[in-house]
Amino acid sequence: MRKIPTLFRRDPDDMRRVLPEVHPDCQWVLDGEGIATRKYDGTCVMLDEAGWWARREVKPDKTPPPNFRPEETDPTTGKTVGWEPIAQSSFAKFFDEAVANETGHPAGTYELCGPKINGNPEGYDTHVLVRHDAAKRFSQMSPDALIDHCREMGYEGVVWHHPDGRMAKLKVRDLPPNTRPLPPAE
Questions:
Q1: Which pLDDT score, from 0 to 100, does residue 82 have?
Q2: CA–CA dist 147, 130 (Å, integer)
Q3: Is residue 184 part of a domain?
Q4: Domain count, the chain
Q5: Structural domain harbouring 103
Q6: What residues form DSSP beta bridges with 160?
Q7: Are the C-beta atoms of 174 and 8 separated by less than 8 Å?
Q8: Can you tell me the distance from the alpha carbon of 1 to that of 19, in angstroms, rounded to the nearest whole number?
């Protein structure tokens, strides 16, 4: 899984926040293209013909783990995003619990969520796998309305999916409360 661009440009003075400027690769979202889905707060895993993998980010000064499959290197930070075999991941035992609770997983990407993942913001009692392609879909709403809805529901944010495979995301934490990334439409 490649790194998904954030809908709005990041503030170079505070990379935790966004500016009121659309990221050029994400204009399609504001043009009304694609489908908005819920962003789950867990860790990404993938099943393919070779087995299960965990998403892994490797800093430029670190040695990748054994059998690491790189996907993309960020030219700004030098971090490489890719996949490591799930069995060697720090999430392996939680993943094993999730797989033991469910059967029949089709190939694709999933969010591993549960009591020992990121402080369990999703509130699961056990570890589970949430299929990304089965994530809750939102009706057509503006990014502002979607973020307000996510705040109210306690969701991490939104991921938009374009029919051609592009994606964009926006996390609730990217925007301070009571702020709007763009001025109201006239």
A1: 95
A2: 21
A3: no
A4: 2
A5: 41-134
A6: 36, 168
A7: yes
A8: 25
Say if CB 30 and CB 143 are below 8 A apart.
yes
Tell me, yes or no, whether 153 and 122 share the same domain: no
pLDDT for position 3: 79
Looking at the fold, whether 47 and 130 belong to one and the same domain comes out as yes
Residue 125 is predicted with a pLDDT of 96
Residues 22 and 12 in one domain: yes
Q: By the 8 A CB rule, do 29 and 160 touch? A: yes
Task: Let me know if residue 181 belongs to a domain.
Answer: no
Say if residue 74 is in the same domain as residue 101. Answer: yes
Measured between alpha carbons, how far is 12 from 83 in angstroms, rounded to an integer? 28
Distance CA 113, CA 96 (A): 12
Beta bridge pairs of residue 46 = 53, 109
Q: Where are the beta strands (DSSP E) in 12-163?
A: 14-22, 35-39, 43-48, 51-58, 69-73, 80-85, 108-113, 128-131, 157-161
**What was the pLDDT predicted at 186?**
47
CB count within 10 Å of CB 145 equals 12
Task: Say yes or no: 52 and 119 in one domain.
Answer: yes
Q: Which residues of 45-54 are buried (b: 16+ CB within 10 A; e: fewer)?
A: bbbeeeebbb
Digit-coded pLDDT (tens) for 141-181: 777 788 888 888 888 889 999 999 899 998 988 876 666 66
Taking 70 as the pLDDT cut, the residues of the chain under it are 1, 176-186
Q: At which residue do the structure tokens 């964009």 appear?
A: 168
